[in-house]
Amino acid sequence: MQMPVNFLANIGSLVIGLLQSIGKALFFMTSIIIVMPYAIKRFNLLLKQIYFLGVLSLPIILTAGFFVGMVLSLQGYLVLVDFNSEEAVGSMTALSLIRELGPVVTGLLFAGRAGSALTAEIGLMRSTEQISALEMMAVDPNKFVYAPRLAASIIVLPMLSMIFVAVGIIGSYLISVGWLGVYDGFFWTQMQTHVDWNNDVINGIIKSIFFAVLVALVSLFQGVNAIPTSEGVSRATTKTVVHSSLGILGLDFLLTVLMF
Amino acid sequence: MQNKSISNPIIEVKNLTFSRGSRKIFNNLSFSIPCGKITAIMGPSGTGKTTILKLIAGQLKPDRGQVLVKGLDVHKLKRQKLYELRRVMGMLFQSGALLTDLNVFENVAFPLREHTNLPNEILSPLIKMKLQAVGLRGAQKLMPAELSGGMARRVALARAIVLDPEIVFYDEPFAGQDPISMGVLVELIQKLNQSLKLTSVVVSHDVDEVLSIAEYVCILSEGKIVASGTPEDLLNSNSDYVNQFIKGYADGPVSFHFPAKNYVEDLKDNANAS
Ligand SMILES: Nc1ncnc2c1ncn2[C@@H]1O[C@H](COP(=O)(O)OP(=O)(O)OP(=O)(O)O)[C@@H](O)[C@H]1O
Ligand SMILES: [Mg+2]
Question: Are A137 and B86 in contact (CB < 8 Å)?
Fold first, then answer.
C-alpha cells in the first residue's frame, strides 16, 4: 500500500517541480522580451555584446564551416560520381548547408562557445552580487544585462549561420572543382537553379533566429538560476550546453517538418 | 531596555518573519530606524544583518510582515515604484559588488551615467571628489580585480554615495581596513550624515568605532532585537546580552556557535562511527 502511494507522490512532486520551472522560465522570458526595445535604445551595450557573442565566435564558425563544406562535397562526390552526376555536388552541398547544417551546426557551436560563456558570466555576476548591486542602484538587470544579450544573439546567430554557409560553399568549391575536377560552370549553375531564395535561404535564416532565441534564453535562465558557487556555476554551464543543444535538434526537426 | 518609540522613523520593520530553507532567520521582528541619524545594527556573525538590509531594500521577500520605507510598503510596490525608491537608497555591499568589467572610475560613475545626463566635464570632477574622499583618486584606472578587499570596499562606498541618496546602508564598511583608513571612513560616514542630512544604517562588528558615531543602536541576535537605544544606554545597560556583545565575552546568552547538537555528543558520534 505504501509503495504505490510513494510512487504517486514522487511523480506528483516531479510534475509540480517541472511545471514550476517551466512557469519560472516563461516568466523570465516574458520579463526580458517586454524590455527588448530598451536593448536597441542602449546601442553601446548591444554593440559590446555583438562583439563578444558574434565577432569572438567567428574563428570557430569559419573553421567549422570550411571543413564541413569540404567533407560534404567529398562524400557527396563519391556517391554522385557513380550516377555520373558529380556536377550536382555544388547544389547538394549548398542545399544541405543552407537548409540544415548551417543553422544547426552554427547553433550548436554558438551554444558551446557563446551560450556557455553567457551562463558563466551571469552566474558569476550573481555570485559576486553584481546583479544585486545593479538592482540597488535602480538599474534593472532585465534591461541592462539580459535584454542586450538576447538581442545580440538574435542579430548575430543568423549572420554567423550565413557566414558558415558561405565559407562551407567555398570549401566545397575548392574540393570539388579544385581537387576532384568537377566542371566549374556546372558547379555554380546547378547551385543557382536548385537553391531557392524564399524556400531555402529565408527558411534557414528563420531557423537560426529560433535557435538564437532558444540558446540565449536557456543560457540566461541557467545563469540567473545557478547556485551562486563555483560548483553551481559550472553545473549551470554544462546544463546550458546540453539543454540548448538538445533543444536545437528538437526544434530543427519541428521546423523542418513545418517548412519543407 | 525595550524599543523606545522613535519620533520620526524613516524605516519601519513590522512583525517580519523570514526563513532560509527550514531555518527561521527572523521571527516576528519589529524595529524602526530614525530619520536623519546614524543607526548601527550589530549582532553576532550569521544572525542576519545582511539579510535584514536586503529585506529592507526589497531584494528579498519576507514570509510575513512588512517593511515601510518613507511610509511605502517595500514589498507591495510595483517594480517601477520600487526602482524609484531605490534611487534614494545607497548600499555598500559587504562584498563590494563592483562591476568587474568597469574600472574604478567608471564603477563610481555608473549610477550617475545611468540616472543623470551630466556632461563629462561635470561628472569627472564629481567622481574624483568622491574617490578623493575615500583615498583612492590615484586608483581610478585600476580594474576591480586589481584592488585589495579593503580598497574594493572603499570604491563601493564611493559608489554608494555618489547619487547623494537619502538613506545609505553600509554593510561592514570597516572590515579589512587598516586603522588609518578606518578612522577616515568613520569620519566620512559621520560627515556625510551631518552635511547631507542623510539617514545612515551601519552594520558593523567594530564596537568602538560604531558606538563612537552611532546615535541609535540595535543589537540583533537569533532573529530578535535584543537591545536598542543610544550608545550610552547600551554602555550603561545591565543586560547580559548587551554586556557580552559589547565587551566580547565568549560565554553568555549570545552563542558564538551556529546552532548545533551537543558538542560532546557530536565528537562521540565520530568515535563510534570509526
Ligand atoms: N543564500 C543563502 N542561502 C541560504 N542561507 C543563507 C543564505 N545567505 C545567508 N544565509 C543564512 O542566513 C543567515 C544570516 O546571514 P547574513 O548574511 O544575513 O548574516 P550576517 O549577520 O550578515 O553575518 P556576518 O556578520 O557574518 O556578515 C546565516 O546564518 C546564513 O547561514
Ligand atoms: Mg553580513
Answer: yes
